[in-house]
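Readers outside the structure-tokenisation community will struggle with the description of the input data as it stands. Showing the layout once, in full, would remove most of the difficulty. For illustration, here is how one protein appears when written out as sequence plus structure tokens:
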Amino acid sequence: MVGLSTAWRLAGRGLRVAVADPAPGSGASHAAAGMLAPVSEVSYTEEPLLRLGLDSLARWPAFAAELSDESGLGLDLRRDGTLDVAFGADDLALLGELGAFMEKLGLRVERLTGRECRRIEPMLAPSVRGGLLAPEDSWVDPRRVVRALLAALDGRGVPVLRERAAELTAAGDRAAGVRLADGRTLAAEHVVLATGAWAGPGGVTRGGLAGVPPGVLPPVRPVKGQIMRLRSPEPLLGHCVRGTVHGSPVYLVPRGDGELVLGATQEELAFDTRVTAGGLWELLRDARELVPGITELEVAETIAGLRPGTPDNLPLIGRTALPGLLLAAGHHRGGVLLAPLTAETVAGLVAGDGPALPSCSPTRFENVEETAP
């Protein structure tokens, strides 16, 4: 989604753009639940990431409206908030401390009793003791967004080449385009690398972009996430619901058509994308504690995707040490949320009229070595 969004914004500036991707939107975006939830996902050590998320969340309504209008397709953007719930006294105390931290940062949250939580979400378990509602958090259907982006790019005459970019080409000390896996060469003044978990040095041997000089690609690691999609005739929930069960976070994201996305595991297993019985069992076990009724739902899909993680959990957005090569990668859990901000930032850098994001500079890891997993 990040790459397609960037291409769309570049084309919107009147620039000539081509996209090389054998299966657009089939990676992390295809597996993702689509949470736009910088408030409910805040942590004590990642305030810079929170600020990026809030900035991009504020851009989502206009981004979605423009994309939907141009493509003629709906995105199922929902702005009903995230409900984070607690079970035991210890969980409730921790949630209360997190709420105080959110309020200190100036974030809008509402503290709810267990009864108030069940009033707005009747399907919650009776054992829920309390919760925090982040009313400005949102979510969207990433698969619909990808379809809309492809339609919008087609409408603008942007070629989407269903082929892998195999190797970077250079002219002197500058990126000059890419060579596709089928042997064709695309010349370009700027190359934007938006290959997710394959954007780092470890991804080159797994089908990533070869030919980049040593030390230019920053460290990116794949973080596996297993997700289930369940289905019911009518939506089971009206809000995105989160909680911590047995020490593991779990979330449930409803769609307007009755689909319920349940996720997600976090596994450091390199490029393994197998769906496992243990991973699915943990998801169902923990989600059942939150919403007992999910065990009656139909299983529509199981899938595993690879999130692109970085050492500091901040994305890689902007110019690399190699002139002409830019990165739009390393978004970990926030690729969908950060797509508008990333696309507009990269488009501005390419056009020469937009500011950089210093905290997301791809050159900040220049002295960090990474070995291929």
